[in-house]
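User: Continuing from earlier, I have the next pair ready.

Assistant: Great, send them over.

User: Here they are, in order.

Assistant: Folding the first of the pair now:
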Amino acid sequence: MNIQLYKRLFRFLKPYIKKLSLAILFSVIVGVIASSPVPLIQKTFDDIFVQKDFFMLKVIPLVLIIIYSFKAVLSYALNIIIFGISWGLVVSVREKLFAHIHKLPFRFFEDNETGHLMSKIINDVSIMLSGMSRLMKELIQNSVTLAALLGWVFYLKWDWALISIILFPAMIFPVGNIARKLKRLTHQGQEILADLSSTILESFSGVKVVRSFGMESTEEQKFHKFSERYLKVIKKNVKYTEITSPLLELLGVMSASFILWYGGYQVLTDEVSQGTFIAFIVGLFMMYTPLRQLFKIYTNVQTSLAAAERVFYLFDLEEEKIKEGSQELLEFKGSIEFQDISFKYPSRNAMVLSGINVELKKSKTLAIVGMSGSGKTTLVDLLFRFHEPSSGKILIDGINIEDYTLNSLRSSLALVSQEIFLFNDTIRQNIAYGRPSASEDDIIQASKAANVDSFVSALDEGYDTMIGERGVKLSGGQRQRIAIARAILRNAPILILDEASSALDSESEKSVQDA
């Protein structure tokens, strides 16, 4: 499973292959340079202090300055490249996921909370790719540094090196166990964050309902419950993440202490030079940092994989499959017919619509009357092909709507629904939403037809007034008029009003009907 996830993650890296290759080269060079103090320390003690080599006394400090200046430049360039790649990936994956979700069937949106989807697009993608960026930036660099340091200590004293590293394989099993627990905890944490996002979204969107019923404390308790659960998960996460460092440090000190005693004895008996002994001890302690980083990278990658599983779960969902024809609905000429239409929602046992036969001629108005839940809106949804009929067919100008391209079909329809949705934008942009290229005159004309212009002219900023989330700064009637103006401006040949005038007074309703 993990291998497949890695493959899918690295597919996103294809556009960045050249930059990534350069980053790998820089990582290797930086990793090698990081191990350079070991041989230089040996030279310092054996050649300068013991043999009193004044020439090397001048050379070694100069060499250190040059190579570490080079390392600083490469490290800076490496960070710029890696963070450029990782943030590019975050943006790219979020855009792809956002676009993919928009193509999923309507049933998906009925079954999934908006807050959960927001959490996956924002939080999960960030966690998934933060692990990847750390993998790209630190894995090669620390692996090369560790390998180079191992090479130096084996070169200096192979028997000491074997004794020193004999304890470290003991860390592999506990770290693997910790990583698995971290992966589970990340799953739990992300689920709770999604619940938190949903709670915030619902509570703030329905703030009038919350306050009118005096439910502020209930909402606070709900938020507190999720926050406490998240805190528990985070505490466990920190507990498992941070335990590897002290364990590695303890093993490192145990190894170094033994070499200090055993190697020190050999130095005192002149079997080994002081430079070799000091360089070996320094190399041993230097190995601790890349080793600790590699273990942290491993645990980090596990949390990233947990987030990746949630993200790719969405990517794996099949996009809406609609049988689409090749004909273009360029002009509405004759009629709309519902022929023996029946429909049942997958989540219900009973039919919502059964054997509906309706014909509507062009330039005629048809009113469909029925109790709530009797299927009036479902008929509209079927015409837009948001759902497909269980049986029967819908014809426009004698042609099954399945034979039209989806774009041309929906471009010929304008809808004002009973659930008005406006965007947190200006009045002008909301009216022009279905026709962004509309001129100012067209917008004003549509506004006057829908009785929008009458209240907009009284606003300080006129059509540039920001209306807030879902049009919260406007009254229900004003929001409905803007939605009607939006449909009028679209100028589609077929206009559908799904209880669109329910929030209008009788005078405004008459004006809109006349328009």
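And the other member of the pair:
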Amino acid sequence: LNLVVPLGEQRTIEVPFWPVPGYGRTWLTADNEGKGYSVNEAGDTLVVNFNVEAARTAMRVAGERLAQRAALLGVDSQLTEKLESIKTDYALISQVSTEEDKARIADKVLAASLELSDDLVLAIAEAEIPKVRKGRTSIQVRDAAGIPVTGAKIHFQQREHDFLFGAVESFGFRSAKPGNSGFTKTFQTLREAGFNHLTVHVSWLEIEKQPGKYQFEQWDRSLGIRQAVENGLSLKLRGLIHADAMPQYVKSGDFKDFRKALLAYTKAFLDHYKSNYGESVVSVEVINEASLHHFDFLKKRADKIDMIDTVSAMARKSFPQATIIVNDVDNDLGQRFDEDPDWQHVESPYEAYRAFSAMGADYDANGLEWYPGLQANFFGIMQFQGPLQNFSKISAELDRYGTLSKPLHLTEFAIPSTYKDSWGSGLWKENWDPGIQGEYAKRFYTIAFSKPYIEEITYWGISDNEPWVVTGGLMDKKYQAKPVLDILSKLLNSWLSSGEVITDSQGRSSIEGFAGDYTYSVIGREELNGSFSISRPK
């Protein structure tokens, strides 16, 4: 692999699809102890053994994660010994002469370092979750006469999280057509599993096939939105400004016509969902993949922000309770914005969000799509694959977005449950199968839930009918639960609190639990019941 770099500038080496025996095919970094690599004179060449350098970086990161875990949970001698064993193996590299032998030893170090980091990051996340997701409140019980009830045993039960565990079937329902009873059963299953949120994927192209004629009702029926709401799922309205989903008559117009058509569609869109679903709407995504698509009609970033502000203002008026989201895809390869049209306005989502914030764009939260090991096949039109990051890298990348001024919503997430030899997508441990899909999802959800700035994780693909990530659904094509749904069900329900407490002389009792809404009742006096909420720590 040959790389050309600017003279005198420090660079890390990033390789998205590197096979690591015993670990999988993953995104690797070599950073020379965090200092980077440089070439200082024209014509100079720096040759590195990437296996060795990646192993050195991974070993250092494992040490940093071990120190982080020790600060939270104390020193673990077994983990310390494991890292020392890795360092001992790494020292053997200096005792062999050929680059191939060095690489073989480095691969062993690399796999062990990545696996250790994965386990450490998971332990850190599990320790952080109670700190960032649990709160405390006090309730008082009085009888019908208003007298405090002392010494009463109260049973409390959490009925809803303040966190959004979402799901979506963007086109799958339209092809599978489960019918009203099928919709009801599917959403009941998701609700029992702990999912509480549905993304309403609305395609402008499908809604307005003829100028000025909108077909929302037909689309809503195909997605079972009514049945989702009846089963207690809140709604996100998605993708008002979406370059890939605009009607052809809009794509062929100039910016003035685009703006006019978009605002007319937005008004019809918001009016329809306000009148039909009202308070069920808790978020509105005003633009999809804001950095990835340059939008022929939005020639400058200021144009894009103007449209975000305009559509956001309309959404806020219709849904004052809703979070306004700008969405993007995790594709940060170091690209930067350039006003030159030949560059097509491509930038990383991180840079876009920094710029939007600096320029005062009017929205509430950043959205991020995350597809590890992606194998996409969108109706045979778009077919491509994506890399997979180890969990330590995932945690660090999420934390980078956490430094921005707005909360983060993980708006799309899915992973395959099968693998074909012809694929070149990222892998974790072995070829994807239903069990590995479930275990990977469990770890990802745990890490994301431990981050206080994250407010949502939406799984993109209720079933394998979803035409995006191949076999990436929570259910199979017949809407039967796959292992990933069972695993996530146990995980999400473990993050619901319940228990019993005794009231004091003032009829009060303090309750600790995961943030969200609760009900309570006094044991032996069922007429004394009520509800309360617990907020997350600030």
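Worth noting for the second one:
Residues 339-343 have pLDDT under 50 and may be disordered. Residues 270 and 318 are 6 Å apart (CA to CA).
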